[in-house]
Amino acid sequence: MKSYKRFLPEVGMLLPAIILMVVFIFIPFFLSGYFSFTNERLMPRPIPTQWIGLRNYERILADSEFWMSVKNTLYFAIVVIPIQLSLSLASAILLNSKLKFIAVFRGITILPILTPITVIVVIWAAIFQTPDGLLNGIYQWLTGTYDYIDWLGDETIAMLSIVILSIWASFPFQMLIYLAGLQEIPKDRYEAAEIDGFNKWQQFRYITFPGLRNTNIFVVIITTIGALSLFTQVNILTGGGPNGSTTTIIQYMFSNGFSSQKIGYASAVSVIFFITVASLGLLQRRLMRNE
Amino acid sequence: MSNLKLSGISKSFDGIKTIHDVDLDIKDGEFVVFVGPSGCGKSTLLRLIAGLEKVTEGEINIGGRVVNDLEPSKRGISMVFQSYALYPHMTVRQNMSVGLKVAGLKKSEIERKVNEAAKILQLDDLMERKPAQLSGGQRQRVAIGRSIVRNPDVFLFDEPLSNLDAELRVKMRLEITALHEQLKSTMIYVTHDQVEAMTMADKIVVLKEGRVVQVGSPLELYNNPVNQFVGGFIGSPRMNFIAASFHKQEGKNITLKTKTGENVDFALDTDTTLKNDPLSIGIRPEHIALGNKYSVKIRLKIKAIELLGGTSYVHGSQANGEDLIIEIKSENMLERHKEYDFSFCPSRCHVFDHLGNVIKLARN
Q: Is residue B364 part of a domain?
């Protein structure tokens, strides 16, 4: 009795957070696990929900549209991750230097972080507009013709357009983390290198890059997870089209769950997605630790 | 030859002058210690020599070359940092050899130099470890090893021992001194610890607020401080200062009066006439004795006693509130809050004028 009373203040302080986490994270998490084995619908209907075992999973794995979305997502991740990492590291190094007006540059670069992704997507929709958007204007000026590129309507280009927009929208976040990582590296290590006669490239190779090891692990993992859960850009700009060329796993899950109202089926997709992302994250961690 | 000569060195940061017109001559093979309280500019001066900061005015000459516009790596110097600044992902061997590698030395040459340095510093068994697997003292030795392989004209040390515990510090102090004896190179060592300065230096440079206050051997500084600052800074525990006023002067013989009414006689070394400004008598804790043995008497109420073993430091205050520290043999059992008689001899004293500058006394 006494020990129970002793923890009362702690429990009281933890309670609000615990309630929120239980209601909004744990319950939905386990519920979607449960739904994935049923034929639960979004809207109530006369036939009761039934336990259907692994049938959702069987159907998903047999659906060519699902595999198309997996392929698209992986393509997106493989293109985006290296470009975004190098871009954010390079700009972090620039912003870490002692240039004049550096604060102004830093401010400008983090603007995309402050803008909601939906707003960014709408702005880019205007930039991508066919035939008279900004990008096509530049294209026509460069080529001196009235040709244009159908940025979002062309099956072979649509995903690339989403890649460009996504890199622009999210590299500043990674850059900020790199910037923090760079500032963690003690200055006298560079001074020792100066006395040892390192040039700029050698300083990067022997000090900066090794010094960013932990930052790299973190940034790679969050970038991977972010890339795999690509959704908003696709949903607003192309809705997965044209011809399924930009469907991603989350887009696939969304259209099945909300447009087709198959919540059980969508839950199964989300479970598959969760397991994939979690194992990728673990694998990455393992690989980088052994390095 | 690796003489080092600083002429008229000044340094300003954003228009604020932190080093004022420093002239200094350091001879080949000398062990020089820059010492002073924090913020006195000693580290800045070292970084100017290293080339990590650019001088605003003046000329730095190392081994007969003006190095003002040379990169740090081309100046013939090496530096050991307070934080060691080792490359954490490299082994000890790599840490010591990477500088030579980027300088383009041959592999066999690098190996020979690194092994030689490892032997001098007894690092042979640690060569394949990384800095994180080493103790503070070992890391410091690696940092020194990285310096040695460069075979510099001048070694620079920036407070290298301040991250070590007291016992290790004493040990490393001896090691660095021994190393200097072995290598016979010029070494410049920065510290705020006057004990390190006294025990290691051939020559001490005392700095205050970006200016050189006094240059000399440890004993010179201890025996003949040019002003009250050096007197108080060199020696531990610090010199006592007793406020006094001018009483009378007959030729070179002067008499001062302390606030407690005691007359103290001194003989001047020069023909100066003292004015009626307030003066200060400096006397070191080890030069005041218990009892009435000497001519100048003081009576102290004991406030605290620090027992160090063979000796003790007694903190006491005079009737007028002036506090003094006295070093006594520990077998003299004094009690706190009681009053005792002490005395000292004027020949052991230093006299400073109202600006803190020493008034030269005749010593016999």
A: no
* Interface with chain A: mutation pick from B43, B44, B48, B52, highest number of A CBs within 10 Å: B52
Question: Domain residue spans in chain A?
Answer: 55-290
CATH number at B172 reads 3.40.50.300
Find the closest chain B residue to A207 by CA distance.
B87
- The pLDDT tens digits for A30-75 are 988 898 888 888 887 777 878 888 888 888 888 888 898 999 999 9
- Note the Cα B260 to chain centre separation in Å: 34
As for how many domains chain B has, the answer is 2
- Supply the ipTM of this predicted assembly: 0.82
**Residue A176 Cα, gap to closest chain B Cα (Å):** 24
3-state secondary structure labels for all residues of chain A: CHHHHHCHHHHHHHHHHHHHHHHHHHHHHHHHHHHCCECCCCCCCCCCCCECCCHHHHHHHHCHHHHHHHHHHHHHHHHHHHHHHHHHHHHHHHHCCCCCCHHHHHHHHCHHHHCCHHHHHHHHHHHHCCCCCHHHHHHHHHHCCCCCCCCCCCCCCHHHHHHHHHHHHHHHHHHHHHHHHHHHCCHHHHHHHHHHCCCHHHHHHHHHHHHCHHHHHHHHHHHHHHHHCCCHHHHHHCCCCCCCCCCCHHHHHHHHHHHCCCHHHHHHHHHHHHHHHHHHHHHHHHHHHHC
Distance (Å) from the alpha carbon of A177 to chain B's nearest alpha carbon: 21
Domain boundary among B184, B208, B230: B230
pTM above 0.90, yes or no: no
Which run of H or E residues covers position B26?
A: strand B16-26
Which residue of A188, A198, A207 is in closest CB contact with B81? A188
Q: What pLDDT was estimated at residue A90?
A: 92
Asked whether the predicted pLDDT for residue B333 surpasses 90, the reply is no
Indicate if the pLDDT at residue B323 is higher than 60. yes
Residue A236: what pLDDT? 86
Put simply, whether A209 touches B (Cβ < 8 Å) is no
- Nearest residue of B to residue A209, measured between CA atoms: B89
End-to-end CA distance of chain A: 51
CB A44 within 8 A of CB A64: no
Domain span at residue B38 reads 4-230
Q: Is the confidence at residue B335, as pLDDT, over 80?
A: yes
Dihedral of CA atoms A161, A162, A164, A170 in degrees, nearest 10, equals 160
A202 touches chain B (CB under 8 A): yes
Confidence of residue B31 (pLDDT cuts 50, 70, 90): very high
Q: Which of B169, B203, B230 is the last residue of a domain?
A: B230
The rounded distance, in Å, linking the Cα atoms of B262 and B298 is: 8
Among A187, A189, A195, pick the best mutation site for testing chain B contact (most B Cβ within 10 A).
A195
Neighbours of B337 (CB within 10 A): 7
Distance from CA of A213 to the nearest CA of B (A): 10
Flag if B88 and A210 touch (Cβ within 8 Å). yes
How far is Cα B95 from Cα B98, in angstroms, rounded to an integer? Answer: 6
Residues of chain A with pLDDT under 70: 1-3, 288-291
B102 plus B250 within the same structural domain: no
Q: Which CATH code for domain A55-290? A: 1.10.3720.10
- Residues of A with CB below 8 A from B90's CB? 206
B308-322 pLDDT per residue, tens: 988 999 999 998 888
